[in-house]
Amino acid sequence: MTTLKQLISESEDVQYEDVEIPEWGGATFRVRGLTAEQLDMYEAKQIALRRKDVGNDTEVSMRNHRAELVAQVLFDPDTDTRIFPDVKEGARILSRKSSGTVNGLFILAQKLSGMDREFGKKVADAKADFSDGQNS
Question: How far apart (Å, rounded) are the C-alpha atoms in residues 17 and 30?
Fold first, then answer.
């Protein structure tokens, strides 16, 4: 009998989508959603707080956050390997590309990672996904 722990551990629940990008030679790329650990690391990095020299004001650094996320989730669909193993280098390259293309991939990555849903909707979706058909 499979335990709930085994069920969770063995499930392949990270979503992905293969997309053709005409602006990049019509090549097909795989956009893979983030794991919970990757999402936590991404969000923690994006909220890097620095103290200003004067006063008690804080400054939030959000530089290249779209390009960095896209660099992290962009894969070669033939080999299923990350196109930019060095995410910082990937973010530098992607930050010089069309904002429309990068932003479109960013929005897709958010969707695949569940970042586009409100918490209440996530709970309702999870209940529906794992419902055994019985009323509570």
Answer: 6
CA distance linking residue 73 with residue 105, whole number of Å: 9
User: What CA–CA distance (Å, rounded) separates 81 from 135?
Assistant: 42
Residues 6+ apart with CB under 8 A from 79: none
pLDDT at 37: 94
Pair 125, 109: CB distance under 8 Å: no
Tokens representing residue 46 in the block: 């994006």
pTM: 0.75
DSSP string, 43-91: HHHHTEEEE-SSTT-EEEE-TTHHHHHHHHHEEETTTTEES-SSHHHHH
pLDDT digits (tens, 9 = 90+) for 37-52: 999 888 887 666 554 4
